[in-house]
Amino acid sequence: MKLEKIPAEYQQALPVLRKLTEAGHEAYFVGGSVRDVLLNHPIHDVDIATSAFPEEIKQIFPKTIDVGIEHGTVLVLEESGQYEITTFRTESSYQDFRRPEHVEFVRSLKEDLKRRDFTINAFALREDGEIIDLFHGLKDLKQHVLRAVGNPHERFSEDALRMIRGLRFVSQLGFTLDEETFVAIKENNQLLGEISVERIHIEFVKLLLGDYRNKGISAFISSRCFEYCPGLAGKSQELLALLRLSEKTISYESQAWVLLLDQLNASETDIRDFLKKWKCSNEMIKTVQAVFYALQIRKQKEFSAELLYQLGEQQALLAEELLPFYGGEANLTKVHNDYQALPIHSLKDLAVDGNDLMNDLDKKPGPWLKEQLTCLESAVVCRQVANKKEDLLYMAEKKQMNSAQ
Ligand code: ATP
Ligand code: MG
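Above: the input record for the complex with adenosine-5'-triphosphate. Below: its predicted structure, written as tokens.
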């Protein structure tokens, strides 16, 4: 099959392919972008595979960076953009169901495509637009089927991550796993326990954010892969509850964790442990904790000025956006307006600072200072006092007198 129109992203990169072929090598566009072009989806990364070895690539292009030379990947800097060019390779001596111990560069395209995970990810696109389809990926693409390249049992025991990648493609594309591929996932699911959480994390988040999330989660449950994922063993009922949420696409990773943790009936203290197991960053953990807390409150009532102030606009919006998953309505404009209308947005906006208080009350620094500032801050946010220096100092003096009594 030949592509009628080569998309702009490829057009731009064509001179790179041509330079390689003019030097006598083979070169193709490969990987997810070819699949996405055939599905009429936007392309994000253009990957190029070639029979040229890394040293040969470097001789052809004046500006290159060794981004992953041991895997055969060279970044080529051209005027039209930057392109990752990877030498055709096979992966051998898989260790412990993880990625291969080492890769071997080869001159054959077929060998390179054979090591790829699914038939729809194993196309190569030639510079004249011809699609090389050695594993009947076009048929699978048409029938919306995800099928492992070659023997699925072997492929999943070589690299167990492929199983969870399969589930995330179900969720992203709405495709169905071919029966033999699905059975192989069910039979090899325990191998997920052997691979790094960081790698599973990337694919699992993509699964949660997919447009066909329920289809992906259903396959995640029926293949029992969840039993070998951090914090999810034995949680089939809780995961099934995720299917009852409205079928909207989730926008952000933090929201996906909040929805999942909510279905897991997590308490606020469980959140940190769970996300630590998933190797989430501290920043992600903080956001999820705040949005989770905000959501619990927002399910019951409107945000108070104090909570909006504590959360900040972004986190309040993240929580508000989750209401439709529970059948509620999100009013993002109201959250934005209410936040903007707050008298102050941070302690810096307060009309007095620590020095003002120390001078006015004639006191040395100490724990009282933070306490006074917090008290004034909260009074201003709740509109109990205007954000004016004299009003605030008067309030502080009164508080001091009261506490001295
Ligand atoms: P996305 O659109 O999310 O980037 P993708 O299919 O491009 O999806 P990548 O992780 O970017 O996924 O990988 C690029 C290509 O490399 C895949 O299309 C596939 O051919 C191959 N690949 C990636 N990971 C594996 C793996 N674990 N086993 C075999 N092949 C893989
Ligand atoms: Mg990709």
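Notes for the reader.
The pocket of adenosine-5'-triphosphate (ligand 1) is lined by residues 31-32, 116-117, 121-122, 159, 161-162, 165 (CB under 6 Å).
Residues 214 and 281 are 26 Å apart (CA to CA).
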